Amino acid sequence: MDMIERVARTLCRADGLSENTVYNGKPMWRSFELTARFVLIAMREPDLQMSAVANFDRNFAVTRWNAMIDVAL
């Protein structure tokens, strides 16, 4: 399961919906894919606390984090 699907399923459940209920011929979680993508885009830039926890140079941490989010997208 890729990250978009994982986030979309979580958003679906958070709305109190069954992720595998069929809606418009697709599992309900698929209705949340665009929102999941926007969530990951919003997370693309780590905040100062996140990059500090990594015990790395901030630029190194940001570069790695951005690469991971890019792959997820």
Question: What layout of secondary structure does this protein have?
Answer:
Elements: H1 3-14, E1 22-23, E2 26-27, H2 33-42, H3 48-53, H4 58-72
Antiparallel strand pairs: 1-2
Helix pairs in contact: 1-2
Describe the protein's architecture and organization.
There is one protein chain. The chain has 73 residues and is mostly helical. The chain has one domain (3-72). Helices cover 59% and strands 5% of the residues. The chain has helices at residues 3-14, 33-42, 48-53, 58-72, and strands at residues 22-23, 26-27. Strands 1-2 form a two-stranded antiparallel ribbon. A hairpin with a 2-residue loop joins strand 1 (22-23) and strand 2 (26-27). Helix 1 (3-14) packs across helix 2. It starts with a helix and ends with a helix. The mean pLDDT is 89.
Features:
73 residues, mainly alpha, two-stranded antiparallel sheet, 4 helices, 2 strands, elongated
Question: TL;DR?
Answer:
This protein is mainly α. The protein has helices at 3-14, 33-42, 48-53, 58-72, and strands at residues 22-23, 26-27.
- Major sheet attributes: 2 strands, antiparallel
Detail the poorly predicted runs.
none
- Share of residues in strands: 5-15%
Overall 3D form: elongated
Q: What's the average pLDDT?
A: 89
